[in-house]
TrEMBL record:
Protein name per its UniProtKB record: Integrase/recombinase
Domain Tyr recombinase, chain residue ranges per copy: 106-285
Organism whose genome encodes this protein: Magnetospirillum gryphiswaldense (strain DSM 6361 / JCM 21280 / NBRC 15271 / MSR-1)
A single GO molecular function term of this UniProt record: DNA binding
Pfam families referenced in this protein's UniProt entry, alphabetically: Phage_int_SAM_4 (PF13495), Phage_integrase (PF00589)
Ranges where the Core-binding (CB) domain occurs: 8-89
InterPro entries tied to this protein: CB (IPR044068), DNA_brk_join_enz (IPR011010), Integrase-like_cat_sf (IPR013762), Integrase_catalytic (IPR002104), Integrase_recombinase_N (IPR010998), Integrase_SAM-like_N (IPR004107), Tyrosine_recombinase_XerCD (IPR050090)
UniProt similarity note: Belongs to the 'phage' integrase family.
Gene3D superfamilies: 1.10.150.130, Intergrase catalytic core
Gene Ontology process terms (BP): DNA integration; DNA recombination
Alphabetized UniProt keyword annotations: DNA integration, DNA recombination, DNA-binding
Length: 302
């Protein structure tokens, strides 16, 4: 008989970090990332991270820079360590030693409306089409799509309740009539297959007691884009970018889009003004209004 291998116990410090994040209703993905990043710092130290000094923090950031760690990754680690130092071990003095690195934000990749239609039609099953339609039709992040439950769909108020989005914030997302129709089709089919339950996940994974994973959703988007012969680099967040950009092109106020996306800062939403090409094309140049170069129509002879 094989003796089961006991799971390694969680250290009191790590347990305290988990409790602090749970108390603030951090998402599972955020908790996983923070634990990983604090673990990186502990591996660099070679000892418990609660024994760190200001010089340790400085040397750690220098080592990351010299190792070629990407700037977004370095800034994510800063966020994790700031939380750990400030809330878990009550060392805000160490948190102040961490420096975020500014870097130019790349413009988001956006699909045209025709490309979105091709991608959604290229999905291989109703569940995949419904999941990607939620990402585009409501502008949800991939982790938010994964975490949706059946009860989060409010057909009376035409809203999708997003529980514990990024930063632990909850919000209401829009639920369009066409999206509701598609979700009802998926609900009826899922019930027939025995994978949908009123208190269950909206998009169950291979095991119905667990939701579809963000990794699987990413794979679904990539495969649908390939099938639709879309040459652009596409991921789940591309659908969210396209949602925001298309709303902006349709004349929806940017502050309304900010609320729908769950952005805490308007500057994050304003980034989409740089890729809203349809909006740019509708603007009349002041040069055109001068009519200096207007071609005169010649009258036909006779």
């Amino acid at each position: 008989m094989t003796t089961p291998i006991p799971c390694a116990p969680i250290s009191p410090l790590r347990q305290r970090l988990i409790e602090d994040m749970t108390l603030r209703r951090f998402s599972r993905e955020t908790q996983r990332n923070y634990i990983r990043d604090v673990g990186r710092f502990a591996a660099f130290l070679g000892r418990s991270p609660d024994t760190a000094t200001a010089e340790d923090v400085r040397q750690f950031q220098l080592e990351q820079r010299e190792s070629g760690v990407p700037v977004p990754t370095m800034n994510s680690i800063v966020s994790a360590l700031r939380f750990f130092f400030t809330h878990t071990i009550d060392r805000p003095d160490l948190a102040r030693k961490l420096m975020r690195i500014s870097h130019p934000r790349q413009l988001p990749m956006v699909l045209s409306r025709e490309e979105v239609a091709r991608l959604l039609n290229a999905t291989t099953c109703l569940k995949h089409q419904a999941a990607l339609s939620v990402a585009y039709g409501a502008g949800l992040r991939v982790a938010e799509v994964s975490a949706l439950k059946v009860r989060d769909i409010d057909s009376e108020r035409m809203l999708i309740r997003v529980e514990r989005g990024k930063g632990g914030r909850s919000r209401n997302a829009m639920l369009s009539p066409d999206l509701l129709t598609l979700l009802r089709q998926w609900w009826a089919f899922g019930r027939q297959q025995g994978v949908m339950h009123r208190d269950g996940w909206l998009f169950p994974g291979q095991h119905t007691m667990k939701p579809i994973s963000t990794r699987q959703l990413h794979r679904i988007v990539v495969e649908a884009a390939q099938a639709a012969e879309i040459a652009k680099r596409v991921g789940p967040h591309t659908l969210r970018h396209s949602f925001a950009t298309h709303l902006l092109e349709d004349g929806v106020d940017i502050r309304v889009i900010q609320v729908l996306l769950g952005h805490s800062k308007l500057e994050n939403t304003a980034l989409y003004t740089k890729v809203a090409t349809r909006t740019v094309r509708t603007v009349v140049s002041p040069l055109d209004r001068l009519a200096l170069f207007k071609v005169e129509e010649t009258e036909p002879n006779g």
